[in-house]
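From: lab user (bench 3)
To: helpdesk
Subject: output format question, protein + FE2/S2 (inorganic) cluster

Hello, I'm new to running complex predictions and I'm not sure whether the block I got back is the full result or only part of it. Here's what I submitted:
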Amino acid sequence: MKKKPDVVNKFTGDSWAYSKSVRDHFFKPKNILWEKPVDAIFDAEGVVGSPACGDVMRIWINVNPKKDTITDFKWRTFGCASAIASTSMLSVMVTERGGMKIDKALQIRPQDIMKRLGGLPDRKIHCSVLGDKALRAAINDWFKKTKQFSRIVVDGRQIIDPNTKTTEADIEEAVLEGATTLEAVQKRTKVGIGFPECLPKVEELIRFYREKYFGPDLI
Ligand code: FES
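Helpdesk reply: Thanks, we reran it on our side. This is the complete output you should expect:
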């Protein structure tokens, strides 16, 4: 029997069905911080917002400095069902088996979260990136607080096209929003139109983020 969709677009008729795991994590989110946050009981905090939809994610972590592992991961969001389910799953992945090593947590990709969730609709991939980015921000906050400056990972804010002021982060955002070809990215950002020298770099970034978020098989 065909699965009944959870969401139907009334204009296009497109439909989505969330996996059982997404529903479970949405209805019973793990590690969510229900009470008012008391910053003093956490070692570090990360906050990010998604320019794509205006949603916000806040994550708190505790770290075992001797083992360099994340022992606690709490979160809150003003986000959709996919953001809630993916962050809930991310919190489980990071804290299961006594806590993940920080370096390993930094390598978690949105694809890894989606795999554990049994998939997300393409247009919801950016929701899983929110938790991932907030976790990186919290880890960077930990590195700052403990003066481990050489371990801080900076997000790509490098300007790729000085004419349009397009940054690497703009290219990443465009890919996340489904612009996975040079033409589509140029349509959104105008990158390289008056500065074609940057196009090889733009194409390289599109390939990189396309693979990061959609995986090599899906292109
Ligand atoms: S977090 Fe913005 S639509 Fe899901």
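A quick orientation on your result: The mean pLDDT is 86. Let us know if anything else is unclear.
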